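Meet today's protein:

…
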Amino acid sequence: MISENDVNCFLNLSRTLNFTATAESLFMTQQAVSKRIDGLEKSLGLKLFNRSYHEVELTNDGRAFAELFERFKREFEKTVNQGRKSENLKKNIMTIGYQTWSFYDDVPYRAHMAMDERFPGFKPQGLSLAPYELMKLLGCGAVDIVMLYERLSGSLTGYRSLVLKEIDIALLVSMTRVAVINDADLKAFASEPLLVDVNEIANLREDFYLAGMRTYGISPSKLQIRPNRDSVYLSVELGEGVALGSSISQTGRLSITKFPTGKKDNLICVWREDSQDPRIEFYAELLRKFFQKNHNDLRTY
């Protein structure tokens, strides 16, 4: 029996052609990856990879199955989400994704109230995820619109977007680290290890990523990769390194201080260019208006 985990492991390895990289990205051991691939090859009765001490490459059968599995995943997700979107439109449901660990004040609530007046019975369904997860779900149609930082949105080809608010990029530092340094400022922590979500650096080389940090006035000594943004914030709080955040990073209950870098970013909302749902652009405009101006009368919208 072939499982979804087997297929995901195979597809990841077909892209990386590196057992170590696949193991790290899936948070598995190399032995576990090898065992899954061996099991998949046994189930299919085919050799999918040629493996030597120095390299891994797809066989002809491996390439064929990689294309098959990728095509099946795309078509399956597309079909499921088209059906879901049709049902959601009938039921006046809209799925909205918010970048995690960000503070939006009462803007989403006020926008939802205004939507309910314009589209009676409006039913928002919200979820809070990392930017790469939001864009992945938006791409396959599992969410209708997402709100995230522009610098973390990736390519917006095939999407529409709207700037909601300008934000300041900041360096997040543990208060325990700040407490032991007199007159602490950004420069005092410029060479600290930089904590990042594993998916934030995607396929970028670490040295390129580190070099890019000079834009923000820092030169980290090394990268410390964590499995998700929650782990990044926890590690910052424990003083294991620093991280990039923003003026709206939700750190109020954490022992974390923000140091402005002097650089700006935008909070944006993004939706698919091919969307036929008239509610989405209306909702995006509401978000922009409520972020940029304090509205006292929701009925004007």
Observations:
- Residues 169-265 form a domain with the D-Maltodextrin-Binding Protein; domain 2 fold (CATH 3.40.190.10).
- Confidence is low (pLDDT under 50) at residues 294-301.
- The first strand starts at residue 49 and ends at 51.
